[in-house]
């Protein structure tokens, strides 16, 4: 299973949902998290070019994911632990990225598809797939 970060979803939406973008991952179980949903929705609603079509396209895309992981106590606890470890090592990353990683790892999703390799590579146990 591969966890999909907001960077991939945003690029996919910008490309109009191009099948070529998804092609290398067509046989994979793709999942995401509610934190990613928030990040993408915030971008859609905050855009000067907001439109309902983009919102509907994103919601349809969400329906294709195997799971949309919630931020629950297990994920919060793991994210807090990761954040503290990174902070102690002088390698802090944004809270939203730690929460995304915590959601994925707490649910057995050990890989993330992202353009933001720099931050996610700091998290032990998470395999980072760039594109």
Please render the helix and strand layout as text.
Blueprint: E1 2-4, H1 6-14, H2 19-22, E2 30-33, H3 34-46, H4 52-62, E3 67-69, H5 73-88, H6 95-106, E4 111-113, H7 117-120, E5 127-129
Parallel strand pairs: 1-2, 1-4, 2-3, 4-5
Helix pairs in contact: 3-4, 5-6
What does this structure look like?
The chain is α/β, with parallel strands linked by helices. The chain has one domain (2-129): 3-Layer(aba) Sandwich (Rossmann fold). Helix content is 53%, strand content 12%. It contains 7 helices and 5 strands. Strand 4, helix 7 and strand 5 form a beta-alpha-beta unit. The protein is globular. The relative contact order is 0.20.
Question: Termini, distance in Å?
Answer: 16 Å
| Secondary-structure arrangement, i.e. CATH architecture | 3-Layer(aba) Sandwich
Name given to the CATH homologous superfamily: 5'-nuclease
Q: How many strands appear in the DSSP assignment?
A: 5
Order of helices and strands: EHHEHHEHHEHE
The biggest sheet, with number of strands, parallel, antiparallel or mixed sense and barrel status, is: 5 strands, parallel
Radius of gyration: 15 Å
Question: How many domain units?
Answer: 1
Oligomer status: single chain
The total of helices stands at 7
